[in-house]
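Annex B. Sample input.
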Amino acid sequence: MQNKSIGYYLRAIIKRWYIVLILTVVCAGVGFFLGKKSYQPEYKASTDVLTYHPGSSSLKKVTIANVKGEKVTRYVAQRKADLEMMPTYQSLVTSDLILDGLVKKISIGNITTTSDLRSHVTVKAIDGTLAMTIEASATTAGDAVKIANSTATAYKENASSIMNVGQVEILKKATVNEVSQNANNSKKYMLLGIFVGLYLGSMIAILLNSQNKVNK
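Annex B, continued. Sample output.
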């Protein structure tokens, strides 16, 4: 085929255009399917919990702006000891003592171990307060909300029996606050499939044409 002209190759491709078309459509379809299958959005839901010892050190409400610039109410405690314990409370939320009994209760297919569940949960302290944000991630909005609410509830129900955390209050139910911006690769894979199909179809058409010439 090295001595053939470009016109020869074009005529061979045009003569068997249906082979090129079929392979292009098939490869484009396969590419679109693979791209769509690989796309998995990630949802994040969060809830806030407050940990404090009620008593002479009263709690007071303050209004602050969150990262989005929205005004929200937080609780600030005067008790220094509780503030110093916040890193410990954070660690307790995602400890085996809290999460071990929660794995079976939440019944989410891809979460079967405590480690699986822990990888979906993040705990952040809200600076200057006794509040923590429990954030959960999942491939569906419902699962993200379920994990966040269930983790907060498990912490509230079990923390006091594990250590002297005082009182735990869940300040709000979890809501979805973020969806990952992972690109849908369907179009990219489909375009790649078109190029592959055009190339394979053209090569097969040229080979078949050459074979016929030899046979004659």
